[in-house]
């Protein structure tokens, strides 16, 4: 079940990243984050009310609050790093966040078997290569590297924090709701500051930016709900098996994003990306059978 939930996490995170990437081509990234997460808050709020999840409130929800604060910071750092580029270096480095929950698992006493250790190494290498790293050419600014490493640490920290935020299914609904409310509050504050400094909240469109956002609501809802579901399935994977295994399998989402771009946009996978996808598959098999 750990492998199943973790692979479902990769699928949903990969599709959410693909959808979010398309949306940010026309709509400011902060607006995409705030609106998509706002929709998730509304859905999760209804679920929490229907299931009586408020009864699961406790000190562990502070982990969800922390995850909600760290997540937007990591995302903004990642977007800034992508803007500084080159993306072929930034994207693979961002996937190194998997080392955070893996390290937490090892500190807590988890000791994967030999095959699983091999699978972790192979899968992480595959994820990095699937991002299409550039091995020569475009120089990399130090600021881009630092921002990417900050983002990677943040992404990994969110995985580790959300896994500690609940121990029951109804408690998980509440934890995800609290995380998303915090996301919206943090992202909304950042958007407000950005607008005050001259940034845009709506797309530049001759038909009206608000019309563009309204037409994109189904896609925004998909991105927000897929991200929430991914956090939920990851938490369940981490609770049912070794975090070291769950974290690596859940971090295969760059492969899903690359394949989605190939299938829906006709983008060709570079040789290094195809090799990375193959290695990720081999690592998955080793982890699942180990």
What does this protein structure show overall?
This protein is 78% helix and 0% strand. It contains 13 helices and no strands. The mean pLDDT is 83. With 290 residues, the protein is mainly alpha-helical.
Please name the defining characteristics of this protein.
single chain; about 290 residues; mainly alpha; 13 helices
- Backbone structural class: mainly alpha
Rg: 19 Å
Amino- and carboxy-terminal Cα gap: 14 Å
Mean pLDDT: 83
Tell me what portion of residues adopts beta-strand conformation.
Answer: under 5%
Beta strand count: 0
What count of helical segments does DSSP give? Answer: 13
One letter per element, helices H and strands E, the order comes to HHHHHHHHHHHHH
Name the shape in a single word.
Answer: globular
Residue stretches low in confidence (pLDDT < 50, at least 5 long) are none
**Main sheet record:** none
Helix content: over 70%
Question: What is the strand and helix layout of this fold?
Answer:
Layout: H1 2-23, H2 29-51, H3 61-84, H4 87-94, H5 99-107, H6 114-130, H7 142-164, H8 169-196, H9 209-215, H10 217-240, H11 243-250, H12 253-265, H13 271-289
In short:
With 290 residues, this protein is mainly alpha-helical. It has helices at 2-23, 29-51, 61-84, 87-94, 99-107, 114-130, 142-164, 169-196, 209-215, 217-240, 243-250, 253-265, 271-289. It is built from 13 helices and no strands.
């Amino acid at each position: 079940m750990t492998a199943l939930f973790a692979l479902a996490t990769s699928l949903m995170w990969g599709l959410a990243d693909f959808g979010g990437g398309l949306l940010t081509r026309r709509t400011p990234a902060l607006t995409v984050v705030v609106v998509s997460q706002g929709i998730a808050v509304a859905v999760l709020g209804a679920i929490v009310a229907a299931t009586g999840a408020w009864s699961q409130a406790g000190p562990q929800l502070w982990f969800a609050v922390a995850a909600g604060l760290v997540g937007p910071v990591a995302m903004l750092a990642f977007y800034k790093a992508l803007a500084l580029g080159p993306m072929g270096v930034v994207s693979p480095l961002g996937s190194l966040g998997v080392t955070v929950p893996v390290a937490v698992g090892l500190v807590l006493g988890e000791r994967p078997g030999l095959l699983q250790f091999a699978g972790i190494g192979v899968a992480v290498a595959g994820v990095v290569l699937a991002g299409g790293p550039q091995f020569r050419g475009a120089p990399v600014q130090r600021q881009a590297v630092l921002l990417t490493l900050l983002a990677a640490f943040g992404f990994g920290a969110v995985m580790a924090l959300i896994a500690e935020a609940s121990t029951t299914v109804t408690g998980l609904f509440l934890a995800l709701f609290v995380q998303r409310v915090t996301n919206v509050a943090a992202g909304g504050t950042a958007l407000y500051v950005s607008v005050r400094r001259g940034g845009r909240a709506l797309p530049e469109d001759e038909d009206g930016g608000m019309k563009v956002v309204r037409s994109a609501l189904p896609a925004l809802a998909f991105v927000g709900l897929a991200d929430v579901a991914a956090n939920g399935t990851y938490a369940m994977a981490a609770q049912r098996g070794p975090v070291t295994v769950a974290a690596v399998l859940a971090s295969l989402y760059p492969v899903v994003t690359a394949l989605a771009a190939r299938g829906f946009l006709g983008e060709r996978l570079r040789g290094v990306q195809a090799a990375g996808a193959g290695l990720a598959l081999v690592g998955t098999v080793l982890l699942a059978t180990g």
